[in-house]
Amino acid sequence: MADVMKILRTPDERFEGLEGYPFAPHYAEVGDGLRLHYIDEGPAEADPILMLHGEPSWSYLYRFMIPPCAERHRVIAPDLIGFGKSDKPSKVSDYSYKSHMDWLTSFVEGLDLQRITLVCQDWGSLLGLRLAAEHEARFSRIVVGNGFLPTGDSKVPLAFKIWQLFARWSPWFPISKIINAGSFKTLNAEERRAYDAPFPSSAYLAAARAFPRLVPTSPKDPAAAANRRAWDVLRRWQKPFLTTFSNGDPIMRGADKVLQARIPGCEGQLHTTLKGGHFLQEDSGPEFAAAVLQLIESTPDIP
């Protein structure tokens, strides 16, 4: 008999009064009885900008980008399952690359998002780039900051191997300190509280613990074949594709050049290097948002 998935839900009071995060909550069911939280700001009739966060953050990461983008566009910023205000299956084994893809696909199809401008970073890119490749007709543009779509065929940076080991074995997994270490800026006390808010205890950390080990690092990884098929689509992707990497990410450094070389839609775009660490939304959020808006405004007629 299969085990019943135990689902944890962070108490709402953990999120009360968060600095710079005034956004109304929205929820969608994405299967397995799971409730996914998302931000939905801006004019409802406008084409959506889908902002996908990574590990171990949540939609709070995009708080500097949502207001300027929502002045003219609809901004959708979900919390991936296991993060933020979304439900959190309690075991590391509850999570797989496929399950995250299924949950995110269910979300996008449930809202019937069309003409999407994808904005993604870290695991938001691992999920978002594959989602765009598998549902190409729904997407008009892609903007990647500090992200990639790995297939397990390339050498893994030492910094990432260390991160995998830490996430798997360290008894101490301090979310806000991890994000602070991956940023140029120093998070203030309220920002640290916000990043720790989704995780009242170690019991809530399964998704954050799981993500590093789910990155394909071998050609035989369970997700490798599907990611290769996604690359078959991306190698002929003609729609606008912009890279906005930072200058201080030890893990993703140089991946923007690979994307630019492989994806036809990168040609002629105003690729930029922003100041910041891995979490460039913290260090250069307004500049990141400006790059997204410039791309949309310069390519208004993409279907």
Please tell me the overall pLDDT.
Answer: 96
The CATH top-level class label: Alpha Beta
Biggest beta-sheet profile? 8 strands, mixed
User: Share of helix among residues?
Assistant: 25-40%
Quote the CATH topology.
Rossmann fold
Q: Looking at the structure, what is the overall shape?
A: globular
* Biggest sheet: strand arrangement: 2-3-5-4-7-8-9-10
- Gyration radius from CA atoms, angstroms: 18 Å
List segments where confidence is low: pLDDT < 50 over at least 5 consecutive residues. none
Domain module count:
1
Characterize the structure shown:
The protein has one domain (7-298): Alpha/Beta hydrolase fold, catalytic domain (Rossmann fold). Helix content is 35%, strand content 15%. The chain is built from ten helices and ten strands. Helix 9 links the parallel strand 9 (241-246) and strand 10. Helix 5 packs across helix 6. The model has no long low-confidence stretch (mean pLDDT 96).
Provide a quick synopsis of the model.
This protein has 303 residues and is an alpha/beta fold.
Using brief descriptors, characterize the structure shown.
Rossmann fold, two-stranded antiparallel ribbon, single chain, 10 strands, 10 helices, alpha/beta, 303 residues
Describe the secondary-structure layout.
Elements: E1 7-8, E2 26-29, E3 35-41, E4 48-52, H1 66-70, E5 74-78, E6 88-89, H2 97-111, E7 116-120, H3 123-134, E8 139-144, H4 158-169, H5 175-181, H6 189-196, H7 206-214, H8 224-234, E9 241-246, H9 255-262, E10 272-274, H10 280-298
Parallel strand pairs: 4-5, 4-7, 7-8, 8-9, 9-10
Antiparallel strand pairs: 1-6, 2-3, 3-5
Helix pairs in contact: 3-8, 4-7, 5-6
